[in-house]
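Internal tracking record. Fields below are filled automatically when a chain is submitted to the structure queue. Please do not edit lines marked as system-generated. If the sequence contains nonstandard residues, flag them in the REMARKS field before resubmitting.
Queue: standard
Priority: normal
Entity type: single polypeptide chain
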Amino acid sequence: MLLVSPMVISSGILIGIVVGYLDFLKGSKNFPIFKRRPEFLTVIVILIIIWITVPSVFSLEKTFSTMIPLANDDLSNASQWIKENTSINTVIISDWSYGHYFTAMADRPVIMDGRMGYIETLPTRNFDPTAYPFGDQSPGISRVYWVDHAFSTTNESLSVGIFQMLSTSGDLAYLTLNNYTHNTSQSVEILNNVLGVNKSVAGII
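SYSTEM-GENERATED OUTPUT FOLLOWS
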């Protein structure tokens, strides 16, 4: 959307230059074809305009035809229901791309939002060490893995355990464990074994 204005202005300038140049050619003795046939100039200008605009129209049509709106009536209705029927400390679990919508419309905290989804911004983020003791690890891409894992697993008790972990302590559990083991695969295996069982069984494992 930001490119539309400069592209329109640039296109207008280009067409003006071309028209001015063709007017110059029309009055030039070196190009008698323009002088004898002024309609030829009009045809050329029209062809140039078509050449500039038609590819852009097809490109925009292709882009917008494949886009699916993230904010729609279903999201609005769900947010309204959550706002009216849940306690203020309810945590909404969804994909990160819906996080900001739910925060704004449902007035509830979310498990993920754009701060965690935009992985490419991690190196440039400035974190308050008192609020974010793990620096750029939290929020980070690890939470995306655990949310996706909870939604995809066939083990319902594990899924519930993952959601409880994320909604109560955020990234604290797996980042603390990972700092202890210094082995991400081992940390994931440990959590997969204990999150789906009760405390007594987890202690034995």
